[in-house]
Structure formats: C-alpha cells, structure tokens
Amino acid sequence: MPDRTTHSIAHFAASFMLGGLEGPLPPGDYDIDHDEELIEGMSRVAWRRVATFIHLPARAVKNPAISQLVAIDHLELETALKRDRENAA
C-alpha cells in the first residue's frame, strides 16, 4: 500500500505540554511530520493519517547532535495548538 509523509510547522507562543514528553516544551516553531497511507477502493484519492511526529528541539535551536523525532498524538497536538492560540488572543 502506498504511503507518504507530509510536513508542517507548529507555532507555539507559550510553553506547552504533550503526553509522553518530559516536562513542558519551550515556545517556538516545531517541525511536524505526518505519516499517511492511501485508502484504496475509493473513487477519489484519500489518505489516512497513521502517525504524527514532532522534531525536537524547536527550529530556532536546532543542533543535529541532539535532535530527536518523537511520536505524538495528532489530536493532542491540535488541542495544544488551539489552547495556545486562545491564550495568545
């Protein structure tokens, strides 16, 4: 089954928490990867998200020697982004 990875950037104005990570992460822009697989049997092209990953640390402090790719829950990421936008308003 074909699959793909799409990329986005998540911006946080304040520190935030995501399950499975130790302590809060600092504000900044974070690279996000979404792994998706093709849904077959459809009359149109459709993709299903199967995994989401965050690149640590944030983009502004990138150091290849200490970078990590960590699996996260996509819905938890969306909730954290929504909370961050609401608090910034």
Structure characterization notes:
This protein has one domain (3-88). The mean pLDDT is 91. It is built from one helix and four strands; from the N terminus they run E-E-E-E-H. 17% of the residues lie in helices and 40% in strands. A four-stranded antiparallel sheet has the order 1-2-3-4, with helices on one face. Strand 2 and strand 3 form a beta hairpin. The longest helix is centred in the C-terminal third of the chain and has 15 residues, at 74-88. It has 89 residues and is of the alpha+beta class.
Summarize, please.
The protein has 89 residues and is of the alpha+beta class.
Strand-pairing-aware structural class: alpha+beta
Sheet-strand content, in percent, reads 35-45%
Principal-axes shape call: globular
* Poorly predicted spans: none
**Span from first to last CA?**
43 Å
Mean pLDDT: 91
Helices and strands, in N-to-C order? EEEEH
Please give the share of residues in helix.
10-25%
How do the strands line up in the largest sheet?
1-2-3-4
Write down how many β-strands occur, each being a DSSP E stretch of 2 or more residues: 4
What number of domains? 1
Work out the oligomeric state of the chains in this entry.
single chain
Radius of gyration computed on alpha carbons? 15 Å
What's the tally of helices?
A: 1
**Strand count, sense and closure of the main sheet?**
4 strands, antiparallel
